[in-house]
Design goal:
Elements (H helix, E strand, L loop, with lengths): L7 H32 L11 H41 L1
């Protein structure tokens, strides 16, 4: 981000990318990791009655993480193309 600080739009998109990736990481640790930790101790005989709620939380955590990472990819690609256009305008 330091290198693109002079280009306001590129900087904004790069900052958005970083925030989306932080959000994806937070979604993993808040939604997915606790379910993984609980699941590690389950056996078929000790499966809790509300295991579908755990599964739903696990699936939603992964879906949210995917959406955030996809958004980060789109924002970063947009920043890359915008930066390339700015550099071509200044070079030509």
């Amino acid at each position: 981000m330091y290198l693109v600080r002079a280009h306001r739009a590129v900087f904004g998109l790069t900052l958005l990318t970083a925030l989306l990736l932080i959000g994806a990481l937070a979604a993993f640790f808040v939604l997915v990791a606790p379910v993984n930790a609980a699941f590690a101790h389950w056996r078929p005989a000790t499966l809790p009655a509300d295991w579908p709620a755990y599964r739903l939380r696990w699936e939603l955590g992964h879906a949210l993480g995917f959406a955030l990472v996809l958004g980060a990819l789109v924002a970063q690609l947009r920043a890359l193309f915008l930066d390339a256009c700015v550099r071509l305008r200044h070079a030509g």
